[in-house]
Amino acid sequence: MLWWLFLIIIFQAWPVKPQYQQQLPQNIFILAGQSNMAGRGGVTNDTKTNTQIWDAVVPPQCQPNPSILRLNAELTWVQAHEPLHVDIDVNKTNGVGPGLPFANAILTKVPNFGLIGLVPCAIGGTNISEWRKGSSLYEQMIRRSQLALRSGGVIRAVLWYQGESDTASLDDAKSYKQRSEKLFTDLRSDLQAPLLPIIRVAIASGQGPFIEIVRKAQLSSDLPNVRCVDAKGLPLEPDGLHLTAPSQVRLGEMLADAFLRSRSGSIKSGSYSYSDAPRNFSNFISYFLTAAPLLTSVWMILTFG
Questions:
Q1: Which of 15, 42, 140, 268 gives 20 to 30 Å between its CA and that of 301?
Q2: Are 221 and 181 in contact, with CB atoms under 8 Å apart?
Q3: Could you report how far apart the first and last alpha carbons of the chain are, in Å?
Q4: CA distance 305 to 300
Q5: Contacts of 297 (CB under 8 A, 6+ apart)
Q6: Is the N-terminal amide bond of 83 cis, ω within 30° of 0?
Q7: Which residues of the chain fall short of a pLDDT of 50?
Q8: Would you name the residues annotated as active-site residues?
Q9: Which domain of life is it from (predicted)?
């Protein structure tokens, strides 16, 4: 009789998917880098107050969509809206970025793609060295990415737009290729996803004179499944550094095209899917934590009667 009780409890404690699973994103994208990923489209300097303000103009391609969620600072999935990084890049004024037009473009071209979850991680004014493994920025990105996986979805790609800060120093510019590829390798390792697609943006501007050295590093990569979208030529805000809102829309669409082209290529290698490891591991942990108290109770009943 006790063994029947044991089996009943095991089956009840091993859910395949909770009922709320349908409301959580299956397709997760990590948005990381600095200000142009966080979004400064529509942000200008108010000469009266000498502060940065956002004009609050949201292009049609950036409108909220019930099929697009964002992981907010409280680690809760909510419907995405501009500015995506409003509670992440908290020390700066955020505006339109590439994330929402990217997600909307995917859903327009692939209507049955499924619910999209965006994970904002970008922080304005950051150097590539500030994203090295062990840094606060890196660890926060890993933590948010791992928590996003608890929804039961998979990380489809990392969108990376950063490098303007590395153009001010010749040493930083020359080290950019090595540092960025080390970052991508560490990120894939910590997310247990060796073939995780990474789509980076080649910068259109910079804070110093060594823009072309950084761009050359971004336009070439020795790592597999790293693609580059070139932002050069997209119109900038009056500050000469940040993309305008229409430019961010265009960039988001370019990123979406690059991702969709990659789907038929190297996302899978043989029978191994890059997303299997983190998804299955996170589900195993959830099931174990759910079942553990019940298993303990059954053990005590069987042992002590």
A1: 15
A2: yes
A3: 12
A4: 7
A5: 9
A6: yes
A7: 1-22, 266-304
A8: 35, 239, 242
A9: Eukaryota
The residue assigned the tokens 């909770």 is: 18
The predicted pLDDT at position 232 comes to 97
152: amino acid identity, one letter: G
**Which stretches of 110-222 are DSSP H helices?**
136-149, 170-190, 211-219
pLDDT, one tens digit per residue, over 79-127 is 999 999 999 999 999 999 999 999 999 999 999 999 999 999 999 999 9
Cβ(145)–Cβ(191) below 8 Å: yes
Q: Which residues contact 76 (CB under 8 A, 6 or more apart)?
A: none
Residue 30 confidence (pLDDT) = 98
The pLDDT, as a whole number, for residue 211 is 98
Helices (H), 44-157: 99-109, 136-149
Q: Which two tokens stand for residue 300?
A: 């005590």
What tokens appear for 91 in the block?
């020390």
> pTM for the whole thing?
0.80
Radius of gyration of the chain (CA): 22
Q: Which of 180, 215, 152, 217 is CA-nearest to residue 32?
A: 180
Neighbours of 117 (CB within 10 A): 25
- pLDDT at residue 237 in the model: 96
pLDDT of residue 265: 60
Tokens of 183: 């970052």
